[in-house]
Specification:
Blueprint lengths: L2 E8 L11 E8 L2 E6 L9 E4 L3 E5 L1 E6 L15 H8 L10 H17 L2 E6 L9 H14 L2 E5 L14 H4 L2 H8 L6 H15 L6 E4 L10 H14 L3 E5 L3 H11 L3 H7 L7 E5 L5 H10 L2 E4 L1 H6 L7 H7 L2 E4 L12 H11 L13 H7 L2 H6 L17 E5 L11 H8 L5 E6 L2 E5 L2 E2 L4 H26 L3 H12 L14
Parallel strand pairs: 1-4, 1-5, 6-7, 7-8, 8-9, 10-11, 11-12, 12-13
Antiparallel strand pairs: 1-2, 2-3, 5-14, 14-15, 15-16, 16-17
Organism: Terrihabitans rhizophilus
Protein name: Amidohydrolase
Keywords: Hydrolase
């Protein structure tokens, strides 16, 4: 059945109107937007939605998250990345989770995302100790059932973990090194077989699910695996999604291990391309940024997670000026600790102002909104499908009540969305032409029952995970020394809360 939103305020983001709100109508036919404009004629038999006092905008895009962290939501605090990873991405003692728990974990993120206006996610999905097809399938089932749009990966590391951290062989006790050596990484042939099977099973499912390639990071993967994944990403038209220089430790990793920055290393391998999406990109040099802009890569800016982990601030203005495409991400549900993108927009709109006296270089609300919609869609290579309200694009839309506290008194709608709104004004969320949230209620799943089931499963999981934490706590003294050593390493530049260049 057709859907017709009549007489609403529309923020299209793309098309003829761009970021200028206007009053008009939206005709949704099937899964797509058929027409947008003033004084349209409602088709006979269409479901008509009164848009008086409402704002219609594109659904928000979460360009980078790890739903595998959802069971650790609210668990960790005051840890830098390399220490936190010992517990959230354990080296020792991890075992595969039951598929139902993976389903509930994924559903938790999907439900909160949809209720707060996120219609599309890029899930860089990692399983400890390694990905298995039935677990990946459980996550996909959750996204399919909830009604969210998702690009999902099988995140991979094919190096001994200690060989991915500089100076680890000097600081980690020998007996622990021997324990790590007992766990051989996945072979390239097994990985390629897995991702080809996953792509055939899941890519295109329900018109909302896509599968991407996600080698974890250049220091964590062999060149052979990354090059093979890159070829598949290019052939399939999906992102090559990776992490580069999130922390100062990773900034040191390139010069120490490869004699060059990690970005230069990627460039030399031919792995900076228009289909490359890089999470973080904090400890980059001006030369790195030039390479990235020339290649037309995308960056997922994880504003909240980077602050919680003390990682630093990505030089977003420099990246934008160089021609890098920028989206926004929540990052993991243990380093944010939510997938709420209104929160991320708010933070991204503020953090680049700190200690930066040149306010002409601060991000505007329109730039932040673009990064969380059309820019985010570009990071997933689906900018021709979603991210703006234009005829022919998928109907992934939000309808917000503009008679709430967040929009009173009403001034610049763009500023209200970035600095005032938190998702509480949302009345309807539409994905692929289907209403999936209405008046705060998910329409496709029983939220209350699913949350109760997950709560009931948590005591057993936490008992197991406490043992995992204890096993991996043995590494913390060594990693603490490595982090201190790296922070004393001179990279020739700093990257904190300012973006002066």
């Amino acid at each position: 059945m057709d859907m017709f939103i009549k007489g609403a305020t529309i923020l299209a983001i793309g098309g003829a109107h761009g970021f200028e709100p206007f009053t008009g109508d939206v005709h949704i036919q099937g899964d797509s937007i058929a027409a947008v404009g003033p004084n349209l004629e409602a088709p006979e038999g269409a479901k008509v939605i009164d848009g008086t006092g409402k704002l219609v905008m594109p659904g928000l895009m979460n360009s980078h998250l790890h739903t595998n962290e959802a069971l650790f939501k609210g668990r960790y605090d005051s840890m830098p990345l390399e220490v936190w990873m010992l517990y959230a991405y354990p080296i020792l003692a991890a075992k595969p989770l039951p598929p139902r728990l993976v389903y509930l974990r994924s559903m938790l993120v999907a439900m909160e995302s949809l209720k707060t206006g996120v219609t599309c996610i890029t899930d860089d999905l990692y399983e400890s100790p390694r990905q298995e097809m039935h677990l990946l399938g459980a996550a996909v089932d959750a996204y399919d059932d909830a009604g969210i749009r998702a690009t999902v990966s099988a995140h991979v590391v094919d190096k001994n973990f200690l060989d991915t951290i500089p100076f680890s062989r000097e600081h980690v006790p020998q007996h622990l090194q021997e324990e790590v050596a007992k766990m051989p990484p996945v072979s390239i042939s097994d990985y390629l077989s897995f991702v080809k099977d996953a792509h055939s099973r899941f890519h295109g499912r329900s018109g909302r699910i896509r599968f991407m390639l996600a080698p974890s990071a250049p220091q964590r993967c062999t060149p052979e695996l990354m090059l093979a994944a890159n070829d598949l990403a290019k052939d399939w038209g999906v992102p090559f999604h990776t992490h580069i220089v999130e922390t100062k430790v990773q900034g040191v990793t390139g010069p120490v291990m490869y004699g060059k920055t990690l970005m230069a290393y990627m460039n030399d391998l031919g792995l900076l391309n228009p289909w490359t999406t890089i999470a973080h990109s904090i400890w980059v040099t001006d030369a790195d940024i030039e390479l990235m802009g020339r290649a037309g890569v995308s960056v997922a800016h994880n504003a909240i997670s980077n602050q919680k982990l003390g990682a630093g601030t990505a030089p977003i203005r420099k990246l934008l000026q160089a021609g890098v495409h920028v989206g926004l991400g929540s990052d993991g549900i243990s380093t944010n600790d939510t997938p709420r993108m209104f929160d991320v927009m708010h933070t991204a709109g503020l953090m680049h102002n700190v200690n930066n006296p040149d306010w002409s270089r601060w991000l505007t609300a329109s730039e932040v909104l673009h990064a969380c919609t059309l820019g985010g869609a570009r990071t997933a290579l689906i900018q021709d499908q979603i991210g703006s309200i234009e005829p022919g694009k998928r109907a992934d839309l939000l309808i917000l009540d503009m008679e709430t506290v967040s929009f009173t008194p009403l001034n610049d709608i763009r500023n209200h969305l970035v600095y005032c709104e938190n998702g509480s004004s949302i009345e309807k969320v539409i994905v692929n032409g289907e209403i999936v949230v209405e008046d705060g209620r998910l329409t496709k799943v029983d939220e209350k029952a699913l949350l109760a089931e997950l709560r009931a499963a948590m005591p057993e999981f936490l008992e197991y995970h406490s043992g995992v934490e204890a096993a991996n706590a043995q590494f913390e003294p060594a990693f603490t020394e490595i982090i201190k050593r790296c922070y004393g390493h001179d990279l020739g530049f700093t990257r904190w809360a300012s973006d002066l260049g």
